[in-house]
Specification:
Elements (H helix, E strand, L loop, with lengths): L2 H13 L27 E6 L2 E5 L4 H6 L17 E7 L2 H12 L5 H9 L14 E5 L4 H7 L3 H13 L2 E2 L4 E3 L11 H7 L4 E3 L1 H4 L3 E9 L3 H12 L4 E9 L14
Parallel strand pairs: 3-9, 4-5, 4-8, 8-9
Antiparallel strand pairs: 1-2, 6-7
Length: about 260
C-alpha cells in the first residue's frame, strides 16, 4: 500500500465515529467487558514506538454471532488434502471482515484475524528437526500487484510465528491467471483452476504442509493447491482457513464471493 493511501486509511479509522461494521451500532455505546470475544477486540492500525492507534470493527453482539467451526470438514474430491480445519463458520459478519481485508485495503486486519483464529485451530507446532512448513494460497502476480498484498499470506505469517514454523511463500505459485472463483459455479471452479498452481519440490519434498487461505466454500482452490503440492512430493497437506460455509449448489450456479 502506498504511503499516502495508508495514512489516509489511518485517518479515516480515527476521524470518523466508530461504528460496528455489521449492525452500525456506535461502539462507544458498546464498551467491551473482560470476556469480550476476540473478534470484538481492537485492531492495531498504526504503531510507532509508544504510539499505537486502534479501532474496532464489530460490537460484542455481532462478534458473538460468528461461531467457531466444530472440528474439520470433508470436501468433495479432497484426495490430496489430509484435513481441512476452518476457525469459524462463515456468515455475513465474517464476510464483512474479509471484505474489509481484501477490498478496502485493510491488511492490518490480517494479523488480528490470525490471532483470533489460532485458538480454534489445531496446534501445528512441530518437534525440533521435523519438516513442517506453512504455505499461503498464492495469487497470480497481476492480481496481487493490483491489490497490493496477498491476504492469505498476511494471515499465514502470524500463524506461522504462533506455531514456531517456517513460512515458504515461494514454494507454491500461481502460474496461470484465472477468472474470479466467486463468479463461477462448482463445476466451473474446478475447471478454472486446472494446472493453475505449481509447487517447488526442493522446498517441500517430504514436508508436512499447512496451507492457509481466508475462506473456503467449495474447496476448489485449496484442493487444486494440494494437488500441486502432492505432485511435488509433500508428505501431507493440512488446510486451515478463517471461515467455511458449504454453499455448493446442486447444479452449478454462482456462489457468493470467497
Amino acid at each position: 500500500m502506498g504511503g499516502v493511501s495508508w495514512l489516509a486509511q489511518c485517518a479515516l479509522d480515527f476521524l470518523i465515529d466508530e461504528r460496528c461494521h455489521k449492525c452500525t451500532a456506535p461502539l462507544a455505546d458498546a464498551p467491551m467487558n473482560g470476556a469480550a470475544p476476540s473478534l470484538a477486540t481492537p485492531v492495531t492500525v498504526f504503531s510507532l514506538g509508544a504510539v499505537k492507534l486502534t479501532t474496532r470493527l464489530l460490537c460484542e453482539t455481532c462478534a458473538l454471532e460468528i461461531k467457531p467451526w466444530p472440528g474439520e470438514v470433508i470436501l468433495p474430491g479432497q484426495d490430496a488434502l489430509s484435513r481441512v480445519y476452518p476457525a469459524f463458520a462463515t456468515d455475513e459478519r465474517l464476510l464483512v471482515l474479509i471484505h474489509l481485508l481484501k477490498f478496502a485495503r485493510r491488511e492490518r486486519i490480517a494479523p488480528w484475524l490470525a490471532h483470533a483464529m489460532a485458538p480454534h485451530l489445531p496446534d501445528f507446532s512441530a518437534p525440533a528437526g521435523s519438516h513442517r512448513v506453512v504455505i499461503p494460497v498464492p495469487m497470480d502476480r497481476s492480481s496481487e500487484r493490483r491489490r497490493g498484498f496477498n491476504q492469505a499470506e498476511e494471515i499465514a505469517w502470524p500463524l506461522a510465528r504462533h506455531w514456531g514454523l517456517r513460512i515458504e511463500r515461494r514454494a507454491l505459485v500461481k502460474v496461470r491467471h484465472t477468472k474470479p472463483q466467486s463468479t463461477l459455479g462448482r463445476r466451473e471452479r474446478l475447471v478454472n483452476l486446472e494446472c493453475a498452481f505449481e509447487a517447488d519440490a526442493s522446498r517441500i519434498r517430504d514436508a508436512d504442509v499447512i496451507l492457509v487461505d481466508d475462506l473456503v466454500t467449495t474447496g476448489a482452490t485449496v484442493t487444486a493447491c494440494a494437488r500441486a503440492l502432492r505432485a511435488a512430493q509433500a508428505r501431507s497437506i493440512f488446510a486451515v482457513c478463517a471461515g467455511y460455509r458449504d454453499e455448493t449448489p446442486a447444479e452449478g450456479g454462482a456462489l457468493p464471493q470467497s
